[in-house]
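Record format v2
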Amino acid sequence: NAGVTQTPKFQVLKTGQSMTLQCAQDMNHNSMYWYRQDPGMGLRLIYYSASEGTTDKGEVPNGYNVSRLNKREFSLRLESAAPSQTSVYFCASTIARGDTQYFGPGTRLTVL
Amino acid sequence: QKEVEQNSGPLSVPEGAIASLNCTYSDRGSQSFFWYRQYSGKSPELIMSIYSNGDKEDGRFTAQLNKASQYVSLLIRDSQPSDSATYLCAVNIRKRADSWGKLQFGAGTQVVVTP
């Protein structure tokens, strides 16, 4: 039981490049989330998926898109990376809304 | 006013002492409260969840919730160097009926346990 997995662990992009961050969970959770964490800012919600087939914006969605591919997988796409998107990205999942969220190991992204 | 506020620290605690962390929140309708621990370079991991007023104990950790005063606290007894980490308070903020399930995190309190 791997829990929540994320790929890649590290990534360096040039401004304007695109990439997709992958997240998968094997806990049969319904809801999945993408956060970014910046020094002194705490965790901020980018997008979430309350259940398979639905997605919704969080606090800081600009510059990102998401896809809930199936119940297990939730991907985050940066279409045209900007230096302001340099951050640590965490995926999380929960069995039910309002319940404990479990986090993946994170992706450390640097945009030059 | 931030929705979830914590002192950033660092909170320096001698080994064996009690560390006391506080968190205040703005939404009176919040029902779920969580404390996460995050080691440097790692992801947050759940320590405690609390849903009702009062105290909840788990090993050396005690969470305290006071909904009337809108604060939740975490006590760490017999602090160990391995407790040195950033502690994140998370509150389920429910501005509207459809916002259920979105956690709002505080910026975290850094705890340093000194031998």
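The two ends of chain B are 36 Å apart (CA to CA).
The interface with chain A takes residues 8, 31-32, 34, 42-46, 49, 88, 90, 92, 100-103, 105-108 of chain B (CB under 8 Å).
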